[in-house]
């Protein structure tokens, strides 16, 4: 990262804060590589907190000048008008992803709003907040298509898709994830929105060892697949994704839909389209769901891919 490009960062940040969003949002997305010299910095707006993340160490002056600029922002009329409360830098390239509070106090467990739905985040202790902001349109799509549906949410994490599905009127949602702690956070996200948990299941299973249990709770009208790109010992994208796709015909209803997601720059949309054709040829590609505009990428194939398939 280059300190001489920081004026561009602050120019973009000022533009976005001039009309500060009322919901949680990405304000600056350097990782889309649209801003030369700023490819490893992002900035999110979280209930009046400015969370700046650095993914790689910059030149010797970069952090010093970044801090100076953020402190100057905190004394500006613009900052006062946004009712900003704190500014935090998270060093994602360091072990443990430590955070440094520059201004105010970090609210580490804020309840945020996205598309009118509540989610609780966990900031400052983990690399991820608990809600991937680039998936907003995917969650919106699920809510719009969940009415009276039986939904399977694979690699559920903190159950963002599940919450959106219940908001959309799903009859039943089955969440599957190896991390029971993540599923517990998902349960709390449902409670935040006043959902009846009798219609929601939380299964702390290894998906590849639990197809029988998952199948018994089906068939499913909608299946969501949103795996990590790589998880040591449990998931390797190019090999294991196909193992999931070949199971779809035995899990889906005759008019079922699939939302297949992948967020790796190493594979293109064709990876999912071709893999589906090989493993579940009865399903056809319908569309790619757009990513939110704040996540613009110089190469759309390198960014998040959210793909709809149907019989």
Please explain how this structure is put together.
It is a single chain. By secondary structure, the chain is α/β, with parallel strands linked by helices. The protein has helices at 6-18, 62-74, 77-81, 136-145, 160-167, 180-192, 211-216, 237-245, 248-251, 269-279; strands spanning 25-29, 41-46, 49-54, 86-91, 99-103, 111-114, 117-120, 150-154, 172-176, 200-203, 220-225, 230-231, 235-236, 252-262, 284-289, 305-310. Pfam families: Methyltrans_SAM (PF10672). This is Methyltransferase.
What is shown here, in short?
With 311 residues, this protein is an alpha/beta fold. 30% of the residues lie in helices and 27% in strands. The chain has ten helices and 16 strands.
What CATH architecture of the largest domain would you give?
A: 3-Layer(aba) Sandwich
Q: What is the CATH topology of the largest domain? A: Rossmann fold
Tell how many strands the DSSP assignment holds. 16
> What is the makeup of the main sheet?
7 strands, mixed
**Over the alpha carbons, how many angstroms does the gyration radius reach?**
20 Å
SSE arrangement, N to C:
HEEEHHEEEEHEHEHEHEEEHHEHEE
Shape: globular
The multimeric state of the shown protein is: single chain
Strands, helices and their partners?
Elements: H1 6-18, E1 25-29, E2 41-46, E3 49-54, H2 62-74, H3 77-81, E4 86-91, E5 99-103, E6 111-114, E7 117-120, H4 136-145, E8 150-154, H5 160-167, E9 172-176, H6 180-192, E10 200-203, H7 211-216, E11 220-225, E12 230-231, E13 235-236, H8 237-245, H9 248-251, E14 252-262, H10 269-279, E15 284-289, E16 305-310
Parallel strand pairs: 3-4, 8-9, 8-11, 9-10, 11-14
Antiparallel strand pairs: 1-2, 2-3, 4-5, 6-7, 12-13, 14-16, 15-16
Helix pairs in contact: 4-5, 8-10
Domain S-adenosylmethionine-dependent methyltransferase: 25-309
Protein name: Methyltransferase
Pfam family, one: Methyltrans_SAM
């Amino acid at each position: 990262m280059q300190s001489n490009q920081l004026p561009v960062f602050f120019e973009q940040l000022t533009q976005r804060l001039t009309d500060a969003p009322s919901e949680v949002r990405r304000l600056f997305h350097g990782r889309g590589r649209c801003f030369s010299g700023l490819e490893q910095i992002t900035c999110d707006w979280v209930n009046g907190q400015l969370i700046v993340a650095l993914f790689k160490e910059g030149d010797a002056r970069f952090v010093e000048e970044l801090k100076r600029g953020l402190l100057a922002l905190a004394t500006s009329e613009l900052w006062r008008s946004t009712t900003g409360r704190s500014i935090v830098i998270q060093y994602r390239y360091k072990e443990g992803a430590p955070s440094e509070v520059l201004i105010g106090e970090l609210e580490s467990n804020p309840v945020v709003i996205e598309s009118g739905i509540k989610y609780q985040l966990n900031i400052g202790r983990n690399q991820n907040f608990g809600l991937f902001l680039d998936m907003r349109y995917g969650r919106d799509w699920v809510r719009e298509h969940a009415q009276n549906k039986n939904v399977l949410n694979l690699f559920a994490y903190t159950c963002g898709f599940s919450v959106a599905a219940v908001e959309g009127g799903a009859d039943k949602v089955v969440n599957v994830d190896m991390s029971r702690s993540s599923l517990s956070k998902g349960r709390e996200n449902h409670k935040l929105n006043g959902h009846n948990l009798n219609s929601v299941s939380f299964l702390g299973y290894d998906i590849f060892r639990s197809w029988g249990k998952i199948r018994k709770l089906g068939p499913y009208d909608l299946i969501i697949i949103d795996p990590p790109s790589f998880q040591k010992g449990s998931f390797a994208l190019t090999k294991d994704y196909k193992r999931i796709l070949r199971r779809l015909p035995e899990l889906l209803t005759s008019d079922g839909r699939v939302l297949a997601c992948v967020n790796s720059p190493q594979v293109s949309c064709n990876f999912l389209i071709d893999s589906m054709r090989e493993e579940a040829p009865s399903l056809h590609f319908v569309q790619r769901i757009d990513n939110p505009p704040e996540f613009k990428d110089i190469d759309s194939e390198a960014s998040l891919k959210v793909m709809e398939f149907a019989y």
